[in-house]
Give the backbone structure.
Amino acid sequence: MLRIINSKSTILFCIFFLILGCKPDINEEEKYNDYPIYPVQFTDVKISDNFWEKRLDVNKEITIPATFKKSEETGRISNFAKAGGSEEGSFEGIFFNDSDVFKIIEGASYSLQVKPDPNLKKYLDELIDKIASAQEKDGYLYTNRTINPEKAADSAGVVRWTNLEIFHELYNVGHLYEAAVAHYKATGEKKLLNVAIKNANLVNEVFGPDKNYGVPGHQEIEIGLVKLYRVTGDSKYLNLAKFFIDQRGRNKNKRIGQDSATLKFKFDKINPWGGLYDNDFWTGEYSQDHKPFVEQDKAVGHAVRAVYFYSGVTDIAAITGTKEYDLALKNIWEDIVERKIFLTGGIGAEPGIEGFGPDYDLPNATAYTETCAAIALMLWNHRLFLRSGDVKYFDVLERILYNGFLSSVSFKGDTYLYPNPLESDGKFKFNRGVCGRSEWFDCSCCPTNIVRFLPSLPGYIYSTQDERIFVNLFIGSSAKISINGQNLLLKQKTNYPWDGKINFSFDNKEPISAKLNIRVPSWSLGSVLPSSLYNYVDDKTSKMKLKINGEPRELNISNGYIQLEDRQWSHNDNIVVEFEMFVRKVKSNDKVIANKGKIAFEYGPIVYCAEEVDNSKGVLDLSLDEEYSPQFFFDKNLFDGIGKIKLTKDEKSKSDEVKLIPYFAWANREAREMAVWLNSKL
Ligand code: FUB
Ligand code: ZN
């Protein structure tokens, strides 16, 4: 089905322009579509379960206030006041620190929308006033230059828009646009949105065909521009996003003020990268600027830049209907899933460039696996699913969500991991100078990304295409799903990820026709990922059951979904689906040298690890053999309840027992040894 924007955004867009009293700047001849599959918005889905609900609450009650507080203490917020003239002083911190504040506002707005909070609302109002005051008359917003131009990050970077490959002016405002759209949707207020629009209009005046051909050094603005386009209906934002995408690897001589060859930028103390690089580096593979996107076929360079880029490209492909990017998107995705993804779903093997390494180079202890990269990869896979309906993208997304992403925030919600390695000797300071979790970082992109991702999670569970409803994640929730103008009220109850039984019921009294498609997770079909990078040692598949209104049914699985017949659903109906869960052993493709002679353990979607805290003999030197048999059990006393695995040789002797906890739970106790991949003679 082709949709001329979706109906909800069309209404929103008309209201928006009626209020503004101006004519939408969209060429009626030039209709744009959007993704053929529509995600049920997080505002229409309420999570209520034992696993995720508390994570979302902790994000709201602890992480959002904690990250705002850190932003105050580190000058991130006063930078806006200084740029606006209400405070004295010079710029503090890293030149892209504005973006952290925008990201927390985005997360806080999502949270506000789910649960009103007058104090948070008031805090945001005051903060937005400060941000608006920092905007220059023509729309420019980048406190590092506005506060004190002659002392801006580096003398070579004083002039606006110069050395874009380093200075993040366009990256920062990409996050501003995302925050502004979230805040507008949450509150209906336009103050931050107007700041964003004014800025985007300026960016559009400066960049474009026959103007400055510069591209953002760190992609992100593309995603933000698409969101701005959706909410305003103004196609110039879409065209600008496409321009930025298409200029990578092209027209380098037409970029105005990009002279980092002479800059040889060094970041010293605030250095997130730790190197001294020249122009060829900044405009090469590192920032996916080595050749035009359509000619790219490998995931290279800085992982967050790369995957934000691919997400932006996917948005443009979906909205404009162009197929020109498809081959590159396909090849790059396969390159990641076949050769460059860790078992936990993390990406980025190379700390030096915070990015992709060579094929199959997946070192466990030094894995960079940045939290932001894990989030970016979920954003991209979600988009790829919405464009194709292909279940494989959710298999990747689920693996990241429960493992390489969830590890990044502590149970208490106040300490974080920036890299998420798969092994630790309890000494190496893998977490940007700390062995263990940290409350904050000089470069705090990761905590502030967690803050905005978690409250958006309800929006990933369900999606629709005409009468079809996709259930892609198993999270206890109630959803209002619009089907042909009627609201189907779907309820999901489950104890996933500890149990594969899922119960669906309906709250709508009036029967509503829908085709339910329930995802069959790849782990239950005996596939770790849609590639040959990792394999289960046995080729067992899970037993599966389906009951409708108490009656057992034949399973009709096609395209990775249990396809239920098209029928009417109402409050009298009930569906039960069950995927058998059991402990599985995983081996790597032999090409992954780091995992030679090792195995890992999984249960359902969860990757396990051994921590020294539970295994007094240590975990790096232990060696498993075929005599060990695994057993899953639920420990209700650890971290509010958690599924563990016990490996025993002899039921009666405890001395040889090895205990495993979910990888996402590691580093919540003493920082000692940890390993996902365990030595094995198997
Ligand atoms: O450059 C902005 C962010 O800081 C990147 O996305 C992260 O990798 C970190 O370098
Ligand atoms: Zn980060």
